[in-house]
Design brief:
Arc Repressor Mutant, subunit A, Aspartate Aminotransferase, domain 1, about 475 residues, Aspartate Aminotransferase, domain 2, alpha/beta, 3 domains, single chain
Length: about 475
């Protein structure tokens, strides 16, 4: 079967490569050439027709024709009457044969943007928040007071520094989930925690139920171990139990991945009643639950947060509770954890040792000093987030009054519904105006949520104002109006 007949699939591969300056046809030609060089387009891949690709990219057909002509002139593309245009056979692009076997993740552009951001581009794929200044104080205390003792240690702690595991057990107990240190595994961030749990739970070909919409990174994590995914819709209280039961009735499901505390991308807080119901259904079906509590900044949620789902699980339930300091304190503090049964933590410890022999001790020592004050740290971050949220919503209502959203219970982003046009197309037009956003289709494997986009609101006010101005110009272009 020919690859990339679907122009939207090719657009995803080209991704944000069209963010450079210059004539549009040269930008497109350079983006396609880069994808060929990287092995993401390989010999024989069929390119969409000029008309179809122009429609998907919201460009003129003449622009795509000129780009294809340039690629043909460089020997990268060949065209034949009646069979369209294809990537030409390379003379020396050996790595393409290997790259062909690799699945391009839905979050690939977001990962690449962490390493490189073109001059002038405002990337809103990630929420940008400075680190809490108290991290610096904790680092100084670790160097002054803890480092001499740490240097006497062997340095390998696959399950985590004992003092940190104790602090994390006490943290979960305060949240309403009684925990002992042997139920804690320390990881290098949430991403590693989820990866280790996926390796433990999932055989190749297994099915994972995920919320719809969901965080794009989880698709890559589960796909990496050969798992398939099925979506479960949400309502105002969290994952819909009726849809979860329907998914379980249709096929064997090995695990359920949820984000019950400030779900990404919707900002929804799953109610206590829904957490209890999900835990009960999972236990009835022998379904493991993986709950990600990476986001901890409340916004409109009143009163104490419900305990993790694990607190509601019956004796037969198997729940892995994942958390992190990256979202609540600083993304540069790569410190996460898994809370589960002691037996599962023991198994995860072997996988962790195989991965890296343990999270760096200095990071763990800093986290140990910060955890007792975590509630106060989160409270301060909430106050700052509320100010940024008010500023962002004011800008959006002034510039883009037709865009709508539900006030998030927490987190760092708005889940915005667009008025009658595709968020994927808007994202591509917005790149030409110098701003990058995450379209809704990246949050669901079926391509649903095409009329939504995720928009972080935590940017510095001046930068946020410029980003919204550029988005408004892109929306005007898409609607056929003059830009501002």
């Amino acid at each position: 079967m020919d690859r990339f007949r679907d122009p939207d699939e090719l657009v995803r591969v080209v991704g944000d490569r069209m963010s450079s300056r210059g004539a549009l046809y040269r930008q497109l030609a350079a983006a396609l050439a880069d994808a060929i060089s990287a092995g993401e387009l390989v010999a024989g891949d069929r390119l969409p027709s000029e008309r179809d690709l122009a429609r998907a990219l919201h460009l003129s057909r003449a622009t795509v024709v000129a780009a294809y002509d340039e690629l043909r002139g460089r020997g990268l593309v060949e065209s034949r009457q009646g069979s369209g245009s294809r990537v030409a056979a390379p003379d020396d692009r050996g790595p393409a044969a290997v790259t062909r076997r690799l699945r391009r993740g839905l979050s690939a552009e977001a990962v690449r943007r962490l390493d490189e951001t073109p001059d002038g581009l405002i990337s809103m794929r990630h929420a940008v928040e400075p680190g809490d200044p108290r991290i610096a104080s904790a680092v100084a205390e670790v160097v002054e007071e803890d480092l001499p003792t740490l240097l006497d240690e062997i340095g390998y702690t696959p399950r985590g520094l004992p003092a940190l595991r104790t602090a994390l057990a006490e943290h979960h107990t305060r949240l309403g989930l009684a925990t002992t240190p042997d139920q804690i595994l320390v990881t290098t961030g949430t991403q590693q925690a989820l990866s280790l749990v996926a390796q433990l739970l999932l055989e190749r070909g297994a099915t994972v139920a995920v919320e719809s919409p969901s965080w794009p990174g989880c698709f890559d994590t589960f796909s990496a171990v050969g798992a398939r995914m099925v979506g479960v819709g949400l309502d105002e209280e969290g994952p819909r139990v009726d849809l979860l039961r329907a998914a379980l009735a249709q096929q064997p499901v090995s695990a359920l991945f949820v984000m019950p505390t400030f779900h990404n991308p919707t900002g929804l807080l799953t109610s206590a009643a829904r957490r209890r119901a999900v835990a009960r259904v999972a236990a009835e079906h022998g379904l493991a639950i993986v709950e990600d509590h990476g986001y901890s900044t409340p916004l409109t949620a009143a009163g104490p947060l419900p305990p993790p789902i694990a607190a509601y699980a019956p004796r037969a339930g198997r729940v892995f509770t994942v958390g992190s300091l990256s979202k609540s304190l600083w993304a540069g503090l790569r410190l996460g954890w898994v809370r589960a049964s002691a037996a599962d933590i023991d198994r995860l410890g072997y996988l962790k040792a195989n991965a890296d022999m343990g999270t760096p001790l200095l990071d763990q020592a800093v986290a140990t000093r910060l955890l007792p004050d975590l509630a106060g740290l989160v409270e301060d971050r909430t106050a700052a987030a509320l100010d940024r949220l008010a500023h962002a919503t004011t800008l959006l209502r002034e510039r883009l009054p037709d865009w709508t959203w539900r006030a998030p219970d927490g987190g760092t982003a708005l889940w915005i519904r667009l008025p009658g046009y595709d968020a994927g197309v808007l994202a591509r037009v917005a790149l030409r105006h110098g701003v990058e956003v995450t379209p809704g289709r990246e949050t669901d494997l079926t391509g649903a949520w095409d009329d939504h986009l995720r928009l972080p609101f935590t940017f510095e006010p001046t930068l946020m104002a410029e980003a919204v101005r550029r988005l408004a110009a892109a929306a005007d272009e898409l609607s056929g109006h003059s830009g501002s």
